[in-house]
């Protein structure tokens, strides 16, 4: 049975039981500013769970598109994905436990055909502190359902995850866990819930992929014994019935909601994996075409442990990016756009790791659109826009990816000698110059057994905050960005990019002036804002119109040549010997950075002492235009210039 058939069977099963089939909501939440993406089926239905009347009635069912950014770092194992479909059914003050649990059990065993002997369930152990009782009712219902299938039932009191690893299965079928595992609200356990937040005990169903292991874990390191909530991967949660009947009051206590609700969520991909008795989500029919495409493109085997993580990351991230683009999200450095850009760039890095070159995101995205053509026709209608956005983002990042990875390699080689930390300054250069999201730098560092100085990275962000204020006439000193605690929020990155382009253009302008007017040209100061560059230089006379045009033309020629922009760190005396330009009156440290534009330091067209950051290739600058040339004082001239896309 394919995932599409399971989805159809689920919707029809609950439709026959009086449920109205409702469409999936967008991945962009409506009227909900608390989260960036729709991460569960209940999220769009919260007003109705709190008592509003739904036009579809009191019984609803659907398959909801979901995205959870917090799982990005987990993708690469056999079961985590960022995008997934959640099968959901809801009772808005209608039926409750006595109907919900038998229906889901019937769907899994009789409709889908899962072996009930492979199913294990968890229930709520109670919360004495908050006066919420143990869920003995759900346990009694489950006991009866298993016994009707001829399965012996034992209840086990595990209460906490730690005790699960300590005591194991103990021959159990029903397991009690505390509020950290078997209580559901949008914010977690009861003590974490804010006032006026609804929640309730839940009952989860797990599938056992390896019953032959008995008490043993699938992998070592996860506890002495295995149990349903063990992280070894042997058990996989496939569905969760939330009995939403409590509301947290202003004084911190709990009261019953006006209506008792059922909020069920089941992972379509996970149920499909259970039916195939293969715990690898990426082997189900939805992912199989993407994996086979990657095998064909790379010449690598999916089963090879050296490449398997990359296959999974690419498949997941391309699928997620395709759906996000279809729902109107575009790559950027803000909020949802930042998450999308992070997915795309992470996928590109992993394509690079399995040695796949060329514009292949489009090929993979087309496969996603084809796979979901029947269920989500909007993907096909948005195909041109999806592919265009992927093409542009891929081209944008590929220009800097190779250079950035070379920079990382050189940097980590040096730091492997002196320490195991990537500095905040280096992490910031990877972000601002090469477009590496900080999370990508952390991931690369982890692969190399290193860590990143996140505090230092944030400090670099703060140092450069003023420059990106729109219209501000402030000195070039960096980039106006900041990070919120707990989640990344990056402001004004489009302005940051423009300042970076203008900064590299100023280096080109300096050299073009010297080549056109002679080596007597000497920089006397510069000032860069998000709108323009202002460059002061010593020269005894006004430039002719022809000279201005010549300088402008030379800068644009070097931009079109798409010259690489790199830097080296050298002792000051050595740096001076390279012929790099610098301020004669400036005070430099013992070691300086020399930024050079060209294939190597010796043959570079331009080289200067500079703190950066810069673009990685000159073509990223765009078109350069001199807007004004004027006198500042006797023997001192000033040029103002702008860059255009």
Secondary structure topology:
Elements: H1 3-15, E1 20-21, H2 46-49, E2 59-67, E3 83-92, H3 97-112, E4 119-124, H4 136-148, E5 155-159, H5 161-167, E6 174-177, H6 179-182, E7 183-184, E8 198-208, E9 235-248, E10 254-267, H7 268-275, H8 288-298, H9 305-326, H10 335-353, H11 361-371, H12 378-381, H13 383-418, E11 421-422, H14 424-432, H15 438-447, E12 451-452, H16 454-463, H17 493-517, E13 522-528, E14 533-538, H18 545-560, E15 565-571, H19 572-577, E16 591-597, E17 606-609, E18 623-633, E19 636-644
Parallel strand pairs: 1-2, 4-6, 5-6, 11-12
Antiparallel strand pairs: 2-3, 3-10, 4-8, 7-8, 8-9, 9-10, 13-14, 14-19, 15-16, 16-17, 18-19
In brief:
With about 650 residues, the protein is an alpha+beta fold. The chain has helices at about 5-15, 45-50, 95-110, 135-150, 160-165, 180, 270-275, 290-300, 305-325, 335-355, 360-370, 380, 385-420, 425-430, 440-445, 455-465, 495-515, 545-560, 570-575, and strands spanning about 20, 60-65, 85-90, 120-125, 155-160, 175, 185, 200-210, 235-250, 255-265, 420, 450, 520-530, 535-540, 565-570, 590-595, 605-610, 625-635, 635-645. α10 packs across α13 (about 385-420), α14 (about 425-430) packs across α16 and α17 packs across α18.
Shape field:
elongated
Largest sheet: 10 strands, mixed
Question: What percentage of amino acids are in beta strands?
Answer: 15-25%
The mean pLDDT is 88
Q: What's the CATH class label of the largest domain?
A: Alpha Beta
Low-confidence stretches: 471-492
Q: Mind telling me the C-alpha Rg? A: 30 Å
User: Which range best describes the helical content: under 10%, 10-25%, 25-40%, 40-55%, 55-70% or over 70%?
Assistant: 25-40%
CATH architecture title of the largest domain: 2-Layer Sandwich
- According to CATH, the homologous superfamily of the largest domain is Bira Bifunctional Protein, Domain 2
**Terminus-to-terminus distance:** 51 Å
For the secondary structure, the number of strands is 19
């Amino acid at each position: 049975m394919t995932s599409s058939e399971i989805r159809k069977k689920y919707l029809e099963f609950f439709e026959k039981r009086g449920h109205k089939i409702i469409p999936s909501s967008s991945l962009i939440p409506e009227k909900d500013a608390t989260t960036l993406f729709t991460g569960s089926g209940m999220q769009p239905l919260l007003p109705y769970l709190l008592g509003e009347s739904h036009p579809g009635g009191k019984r609803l069912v659907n398959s909801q598109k979901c995205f959870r950014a917090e799982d990005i770092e987990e993708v690469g194992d056999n079961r985590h994905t960022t995008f997934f479909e959640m099968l959901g059914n809801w009772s808005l003050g209608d039926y409750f436990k006595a109907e919900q649990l038998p229906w889901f059990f019937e769907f899994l065993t009789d409709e889908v055909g899962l072996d009930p002997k492979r199913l294990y369930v968890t229930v709520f152990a109670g919360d004495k502190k908050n006066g919420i009782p143990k869920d003995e009712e759900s346990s009694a219902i489950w006991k009866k359902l298993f016994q009707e299938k001829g399965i012996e039932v034992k209840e086990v009191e595990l209460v906490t995850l730690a005790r699960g690893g300590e005591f194991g299965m103990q021959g159990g079928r029903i397991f009690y866990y505390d509020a950290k595992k078997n209580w559901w609200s949008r914010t977690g356990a009861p003590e974490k819930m804010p006032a006026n937040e609804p929640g309730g005990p839940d009952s989860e169903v797990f599938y056992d992929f390896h019953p032959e292991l008995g008490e043993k874990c699938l992998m070592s390191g996860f506890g002495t014994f295995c149990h349903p909530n063990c992280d070894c991967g042997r058990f996989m949660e496939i569905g969760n019935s939330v009995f939403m009947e409590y509301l947290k009051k202003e004084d911190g206590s709990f009261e019953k909601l006006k209506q008792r609700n059922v909020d069920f969520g089941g992972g379509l991909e996970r149920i499909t994996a259970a039916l195939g008795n293969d715990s690898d989500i990426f082997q189900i029919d939805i992912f199989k075409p993407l994996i086979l495409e990657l095998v064909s493109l790379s010449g690598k085997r999916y089963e090879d442990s050296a490449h398997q993580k990359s296959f999974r990351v690419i498949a997941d991230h391309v699928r997620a990016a395709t759906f996000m683009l279809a729902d109107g999200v575009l790559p950027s450095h803000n909020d949802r756009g930042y998450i999308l850009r992070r997915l795309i760039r992470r996928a590109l890095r992993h394509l690079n790791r399995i040695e796949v070159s060329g514009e292949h995101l489009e090929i993979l995205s087309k496969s996603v659109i084809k796979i979901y053509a029947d269920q989500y026709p909007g993907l096909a209608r948005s195909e041109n826009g999806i592919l265009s956005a992927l093409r542009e983002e891929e081209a944008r990042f590929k220009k800097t990816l190779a250079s950035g990875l070379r920079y990382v390699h050189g940097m980590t080689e040096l730091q492997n000698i002196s320490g195991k930390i990537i500095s905040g300054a280096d992490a910031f250069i990877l972000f601002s110059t090469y477009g590496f999201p900080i999370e990508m730098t952390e991931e690369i560092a982890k692969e190399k057994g290193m860590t990143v100085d996140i505090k230092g990275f944030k400090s670099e962000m703060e140092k450069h905050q003023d420059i990106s204020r729109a219209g501000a006439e402030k000195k070039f000193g960096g980039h106006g960005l900041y990070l919120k605690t707990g989640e990344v929020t990056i402001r004004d990155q489009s302005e940051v990019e423009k300042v970076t382009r203008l900064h590299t253009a100023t280096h080109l302008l300096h050299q073009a002036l010297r080549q056109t007017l002679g080596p007597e040209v000497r920089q006397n100061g510069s000032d860069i804002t998000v709108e323009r560059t202002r460059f002061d230089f010593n020269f005894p006379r006004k430039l002719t119109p022809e000279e201005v045009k010549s300088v402008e033309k030379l800068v644009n020629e070097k931009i079109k040549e798409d010259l690489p922009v790199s830097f080296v760190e050298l002792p000051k005396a050595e740096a001076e010997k390279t012929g790099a330009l610098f301020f004669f009156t400036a005070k430099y440290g013992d070691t300086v950075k020399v930024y050079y534009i060209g294939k190597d330091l010796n043959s570079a067209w331009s080289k200067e002492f500079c703190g950066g950051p810069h673009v990685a290739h000159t073509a990223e600058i765009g078109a350069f235009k001199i807007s004004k040339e004027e006198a500042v004082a006797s023997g001192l001239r000033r040029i103002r210039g702008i860059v255009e896309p």
